[in-house]
């Protein structure tokens, strides 16, 4: 069941009508059942993994609440880490590591008989395992008290708007909202409807149409260099529209029910450096990695060399989190290197500005970001190298490319305009404060583009595979 399907529309309409008629505790029961139905719609067998993470981390939290013995507490948190990362590692990376090991042994001349299992990666496993693990780590550190009600904790883990592609919520933010009575304020409903409209606009009109410019190129054996370059820029906005679209819909749906999910994107392509980018892109993951991995490794507390190593390890694992492919790993290393380089030069140049206007720094870093997306989207390292060389050795611009450029600009310019407004007009809900005539003109224009030119058929979201 995906947001951009009629099935989900009927599902949410029925759930929402019941939700409005129930009291707080009954609402939680309804949302928990609805969340399990939503997740089980993909494959009911995946529910078992969700329940395992839920039971284990609820039990770990309760155990941490009952003891002050340091050895017992370390043992409990290790159970949470082992179970969550064990589930994630087995279902997501087992076949990858088996194949990589076989390839390495074969390279050195050893015959192997290692076999993969053909494991299907459960939808959203990277998101909910990090969410439950983050809860256990927060209880272990004494940042929050363990949740006493199993039903409340289960809903925190399974809350369907953000279950399969985030944001990766913190217990001190979402769990508190589960435990307390929600108030349905008109301002929240208005902003929720705006977020839903914007989310569908980014996904159905922008991302799904850009897919038609990206997938054929990366599925071709020998595309022209101009096609590759166009596909790289198109993918940068495709993945942004797709993922930010999901996050906006999730936040909007939640607001209609009185919940407030964290902002996951803040105009990321207006970033001026790598540090700024990761404060704008997939914020729930970047802050999770910062708080539970980078800081745990020592952060910047043990000298510059250790800080650089911690940044590289964090981004290496951040890349690997995205999937079982070496291109994701290299993408993570690429961004880790950018963070290290920025930190080194910032010591001597004042945040690495070099006297350049902001617009120049935005353009330069956007192109570095696109280079990273080129690596990320490539099916293999070999494909990336070949396609990259095609840009310089087989670049041909013709009438068809001019037509593609026009389509690209038609799809992308509205996204840039929306981000400009949000960047310089006080945040993601600024449209809700505009005068009605301007606000409704924007709404109607976006709705018309979705209805007339939006993609049909319920295309899955990119981050479902992660």
Number of strands: 0
Structural class: mainly alpha
Residue fraction in strands: under 5%
Q: How many helix segments?
A: 17
Q: Radius of gyration in whole Å, from Cα?
A: 23 Å
What would you note in describing this structure?
Helix content is 70%, strand content 0%. It has 466 residues and is mostly helical. It is globular. It folds into two domains: 6-182, no CATH class; 187-272 and 353-465, no CATH class. The protein has 17 helices and no strands. Helix 4 (70-107) packs antiparallel against helix 5 and helix 8 runs parallel beside helix 17.
List its salient traits:
globular; 466 residues; 17 helices; mainly alpha; 2 domains; single chain
């Amino acid at each position: 069941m995906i947001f951009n399907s009629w099935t989900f529309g009927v599902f949410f309409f029925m759930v929402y009508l019941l939700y409005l008629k129930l009291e707080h505790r009954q609402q939680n029961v309804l949302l928990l059942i609805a969340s399990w139905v939503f997740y089980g719609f993909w494959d009911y067998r995946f529910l078992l993994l969700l329940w395992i993470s839920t039971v284990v981390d609820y039990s770990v939290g309760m155990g941490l609440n009952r003891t002050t013995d340091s050895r017992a507490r370390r043992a409990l948190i290790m159970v949470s880490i082992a179970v969550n990362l064990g589930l994630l590692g087995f279902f997501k990376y087992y076949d990858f590591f088996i194949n990589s090991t076989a390839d390495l042994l074969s390279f050195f001349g050893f015959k192997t008989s290692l076999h993969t299992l053909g494991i299907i990666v459960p939808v959203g496993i990277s998101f909910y395992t990090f969410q439950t693990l983050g809860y256990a780590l927060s209880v272990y550190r004494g940042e929050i008290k363990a949740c006493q009600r199993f039903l409340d904790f289960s809903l925190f883990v399974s809350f369907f708007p953000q279950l399969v592609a985030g944001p990766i919520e913190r217990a001190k933010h979402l769990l508190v909202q589960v435990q307390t009575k929600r108030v349905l304020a008109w301002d929240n409903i208005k902003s929720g409807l705006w977020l839903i409209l914007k989310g569908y606009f980014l996904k159905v009109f922008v991302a799904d149409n850009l897919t038609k410019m990206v997938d054929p190129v990366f599925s071709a054996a020998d595309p022209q260099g101009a096609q590759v370059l166009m596909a790289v820029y198109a993918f940068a906005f495709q993945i942004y529209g797709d993922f930010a679209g999901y996050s906006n819909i999730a936040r909007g749906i939640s607001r209609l029910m009185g919940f407030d999910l964290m902002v996951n994107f803040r105009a990321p392509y207006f970033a001026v450096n790598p540090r700024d980018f990761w404060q704008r892109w997939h914020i729930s993951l970047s802050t999770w990695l910062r708080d539970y991995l980078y800081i745990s490794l020592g952060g910047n507390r043990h000298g510059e060399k250790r800080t650089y190593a911690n940044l590289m390890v964090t981004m290496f694992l951040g890349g690997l989190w995205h999937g079982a492919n070496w291109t994701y790993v290299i993408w993570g290393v690429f961004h880790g290197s950018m963070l290290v380089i920025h930190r080194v030069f910032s010591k001597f140049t004042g945040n690495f500005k070099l006297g350049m206007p902001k617009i120049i720094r935005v353009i330069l870093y956007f192109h570095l970001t696109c280079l990273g997306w080129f690596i990320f989207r490539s099916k293999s390292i070999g494909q990336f190298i070949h396609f990259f060389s095609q840009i310089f050795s087989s670049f041909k611009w013709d009438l068809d490319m001019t037509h593609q450029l026009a389509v690209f600009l038609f799809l992308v310019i509205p996204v840039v305009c929306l981000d400009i407004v949000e960047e310089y007009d006080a945040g993601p809900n600024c449209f809700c404060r505009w005068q009605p005539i301007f606000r409704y003109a924007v709404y109607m224009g976006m709705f018309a583009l979705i209805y007339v030119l939006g993609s049909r058929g319920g295309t899955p979201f990119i981050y479902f595979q992660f």
